[in-house]
Amino acid sequence: MILVFASSNKNKIQEIAQLMPQSITIKGLKEIGCTTEIPETSDTIEGNAILKANFVKNNYQLDCFADDTGLEVAALNGAPGVYSARYAGEHCNSEDNIDKLLRELEGIEDRSAQFKTIVALNLGEETYLFEGIVRGRISTNRIGSQGFGYDSVFIPEGSERSFAQFSMEEKAAVSHRGIAIKELIEFLKN
Description:
Shape: globular
Structural class: alpha/beta
Strand content: 15-25%
Mean pLDDT: 93
Low-confidence stretches: none
Helix content: 25-40%
Oligomer: single chain
Number of helices: 5
Radius of gyration: 16 Å
């Protein structure tokens, strides 16, 4: 089975391809000739995942899945949430986003947070949703050099290490994306 993963992020594609059984081949957007930046205009994580999956299905007529992830910080009323990738502004990068997050949490004791991923699968004429949530806390500074996004400041429950200190395999086993993708894989097996 060939499934398109509606992403151009090579880190995410690699992370997910590693979790898939050998019977499923994952192709990223570039591999199907899609160079369009798919707009994420929904105000929910679920909505953005569905938008991206529908874009591929409607424009390329291929079975596909898409994900959207948000970091939800309790002390910031769930922010950055759906705006996690562009938290510091439209043309900013992950480092800018982390800088802004750490500034906003200065002096705040409650640093509890969660990563939430929604995967939208378009298979045939149906759409299915899968969710993964990992609870944890935001560190006071960057720790580790692996991973991407907010990994260097997110410490999952039960660990003293940030996601940026996990190997790709370790992270995939416990991460929000890993949980949602495992649900997707179980669904595909059945």
